[in-house]
Structure formats: structure tokens, C-alpha cells
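Extended Data, panel c. Modelled sequence:
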Amino acid sequence: MSTQNRLRFLFSTRENYPAYRVDVTDLFSRGMASRGHAIDWVMQSETPAHSRVIRSSDNERVFLGAATSARGGGKLLNACLLFLNDLRMIRLVAVNGYDFVQVRDRFLAALLALAIAKIKGLPFFYWMSFPYPEADLNRAKEEAANLSAFKKVAYLLRGHASALALYKIILPCADHVFVQSQKMLEAVAAKGIQSDKMTPVPMGILLSRISPEEIKPSDDVRLRGARPIVYVGTLVAERKIEFLFQATKLLLDKWPDALLVLVGGADDEQMQHLAEEAGKSGVAPRVLFTGFLPMTQAWGYIRAADVCVSYIRPHPILDVGTPTKVLEYLAWNRPVVANDHPDQVQVLRESGAGIAVPSTPEAFAEAIDRLLSDRELAEGMARNGVDYVRSNRNYEALVDMLEDRYHAVLDRRESRAASCG
């Protein structure tokens, strides 16, 4: 990469150091930085630590904020330490030749970075991976949350304050906004933000990690003589996995050898609840709970599946996300049945690698039945998956798209400045 195309930017993110989210590590550390772009991160330590600078790779520095134990008054102290670390951006922007400043999912830091960028004449980008204001407001209103009156008021205040900052100041003043999905773009545009200054950057997977020749179908003896219907993911209460029990019950009328395989786990109380719900639904003998497994073992169950399934409960907060479950199934060339979550619908429609159906047990069971009944159709769909992922949701392809977008926005801004001059 020529030095002319090499980008240098300051990036403040909500994630603590070391970051584990793949849309941070694979897009930026393993993606942008490995291609020669220079990133200065402003992050707080995940564990108690002193403030310092870490050279995390040849092209990355982390300006690490101090942190203390969360016990006692630690949360308030950590919030103060976080803000002190944010103030380092003033000096960093003053002494480093950044091409732009970017903030991810942080409101106070974004206001500070926006002001600094405007003063220095730098572009400011905002990265919105999740609707945090709406999540706070929704949490305050949910009866099932069992919150104290104090916590409800706290969530309401934070939700309204962050919404005001985000939709009235940060996003309108940003040079460009990266969002999680097309659905999120539409939701943000409905708040009055220009659609043409937003770019969806969905979650993806790194295909180079997936080696079919190294991972064999699971040899779990409990799969023998069964038609495995495989779900991989967390089983926490919010996922409403009971939906799959209802669909399985309908499926067993025609396919008594169907086996719902739930690869994942939750706390003991939730696992006990799910076992009881499976019993009440009459499907307990045809449900296999594997518990938490290393990813390589989970992949073995995916490879052994006749059909892989994904259910994301309909909810305004979840609808704007881009879950990776379906992508993993497609990467392993397995046919998929998923409910009508917006991103799942898009992926399966564009790839032709599965069936997206309304969020009812009847529709779900009917689609699984269709794939079990027509193996030629199922395997034909399965073969479509990996090529779609490689071209559209592999992180290498997403980094290509992100690089192009950064350069296009910066070039456009430079052209406008030249014409005004």
C-alpha cells in the first residue's frame, strides 16, 4: 500500500482492552491495521491497571485508561478514569497527523471528539453498532425486568440524555456514520439523519478460520439414527428457545427421528427451566443439550446437521442487528431455516442457501419438513452458502468495503474544500 493511501486515525471505542468483539478485532486489528493503516486506540483497561501506552502491533497503539476494581465505589471511579483518558484525545489530535477521528458507541467521548475534530478541521466519523439509547428506554419500561424505581428512573434519564446527544448533535454533525444494518440505517434516517451519509457495516465471519478438511461431522453417538436439527448459540432466557420446542413438537408428527440439538448453554437456573419446558412440550426425549463447547466441537455438530436453525425473537432492538449464526451455518455448507429477522431474511434471500419464514412454530416446522423431505433441494441450497459468505460477509471482503468507504468520504470532503477555496 502506498503511503498516499495509508490512513491514520484515532479511534475511541466502548469496548475495553483487550477487545474481544470480532467486529473490532477482525475489521480493524486483523483487517485495517494489518493492511498498513495506523490506528491509535483510546480504551479503558478491562482489569485493574495503570494508565499507559501499549504498542499492540506494528500499526496500532493503545492509549490505555486506568481502571480499578468494580467493588464498592469502583464503578463511579472507573467512569471518572474513563473520562480522564478521553481527555487525552485533545493532545493526541493536536500532535498527530490523523486523517480522521472516529468514536464507537460512546456519547460523552463523541461530543468531546466531535468538538476537537471541528476545531482542528478533521473529519469526524461515528460508529453505531447498537441502539443504546433505545435499549435503556426499553429496559426502563419492561415489566419483566423487575427494576427498582431508582433504576427505572436512571435508565430513563440516561436513555433520553444519550438519545438527545446522539440524534440531535453527534449524528447530524458527523461527516459519516457507520451503522450495523440496513434496518438500522432506516431507523436512524427516520430520526432525521441523512441516509446518504450512512453506511451499513454488518457483522461477518473470518472464513480463513474455517477448515472443512480439519473439522469432521460430530461422532456423538446420540446422533446415530437421528435427523439432527442443530441450533448453535447461547440459551439465555432472552433468546426464547422454547419457540424451537414448539416447532419440534409439530415436526415430530411426521419425523419421529428428528432430534433438536442445542449447542450452547446458560446458567443452571435457565438450563433447568429449558429442560422443564421441553418436558411440558412433550419433546424432551428428542432434545439434546450439549452445554457450552469449544468452537471446533460446535462446528462438528453443524457439519452433522440435516438442517441448521436460527430463531431471533422479534423485537425492535434486536431487529437492527446482524447476527452471525446463519453466516456460520452457510460457511459450513448447511441448509438453514430461520425466522423473519430482517438481516436473516436478506442473507437467505440473497444467498439462496435457506428458507426464512414468519416467526410462528407452524411456519418453522413446515420449512424444516420441506428440507428434510427434499434432500436435493436442501443440499443445493447448502452449496450456495460459502460463496455468498466469501463475497459479502467474510471480514476480508468487509475490510475492502470499509477501506473504499473511508477513502470515498475523505476524497469527497477534500473535493468540497478545494471547490470552496
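The two ends are 30 Å apart (CA to CA). This feature is highlighted in the accompanying rendering.
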